[in-house]
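Hi team,

Filling in the usual template for the complex we talked about on Friday. All components are listed, including any nucleic acid strands or ligand strings, so the model treats them as one assembly.

SUBMITTER: L.P.
PURPOSE: interface mapping
COMPONENTS: two
RESIDUES: 344
SEQUENCES:
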Amino acid sequence: MKFYDKLIFIDEITSELEESEDREELITIIRETFHHHVLDIILTHLPRSHTVAPLSPGYPHPMPSSPYTT
Amino acid sequence: MNTDLLRAKLKLKSFQAKNQLLSHHPHVAKLLAAGATAGSLLLSPAQPVLHAALPSASENLSITPFDLQQNIRDRLKEILPGEVGPLTDGQESQISGLLHDTFGIHALAELEGNRLNHQFGLIGAEQHLMRYPGDVVENMAPGRGAWGYFAYSKSLLTPDLIAKEKYYVAVQTLYLPDWNTRLPYLRDWYKFRKVIVLNPVNGRADVAVIADSGPAAWTGKHFGGSPEVMADLQLNIGKQKGPVIMFFVDDPENKVPLGPLEYNLERPSLLTGV
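RESULT (copied from the run log):
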């Protein structure tokens, strides 16, 4: 259960997968991909002071070139 | 769509997403590697952090995993002897080159002065290993693996350790000539040592870690594979035994992901047609 499950409906994508013995594995890969995209977007937009500090002494500010900042 | 092709595409997308996240926010790597819980940054990754080089686009796969498997299978036929047994230095070198050309990994029969008694041998099916005290899963061995529990409790079980148990192999460390005389060093060196295990019959390959010792010599087998490894190699049917190549993976930066190898990690353009 992810915190964004009520905002992003991954089931709309995974429901397109046909029944097969590999279906669960494919769903896991899809969920991981979404998870990393979501985290990237959130961390890019979230002010540094709002992230779970101290994450790292060298925590950089969001990159201006990020495709998610425009 | 072909399932293998779809899986390969999804994996590339997944790696791209992970790499993008880590390139924008490198501090997250520590949390992912440590298997941070949802309470810290709301993370619950299912796999360890890996940094396979990837292209910016991966829409058009021109070489499928099946193509790679067929290619390496055919080329191995020209290198390997007719039955499992010792390899010559020349054969080992050729196989290392082939593995690098095909998968973009550095795999060697001998690494840092260490080598297994067999590089081309028979693998048999193993059960799941107990990951922590009280762990219960289907098809699990009654005792712990040769290196003990993966974690001291369920709460300490990280995604990285879960993957290690999922993709593990057993090798016959007990029969190494210097095992007893160099036990402290070798025990640590072999623990979770990354290997590539490849089925030369179909070209399917997994990257796994050494997490158990065995099988006994009287079985006639030289290696053991976890249920997932055996399934990936398509050796989980019938006698659940077959010939494999087992080479160490030289991966000091932990860039090579565990699990099925279905693309070239150094030259993904081979897959994308870029």
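MY TAKE: Residues 23-45 of chain A form the longest helix (23 residues). Residues 52-70 of chain A have pLDDT under 50 and may be disordered.

Thanks, L.
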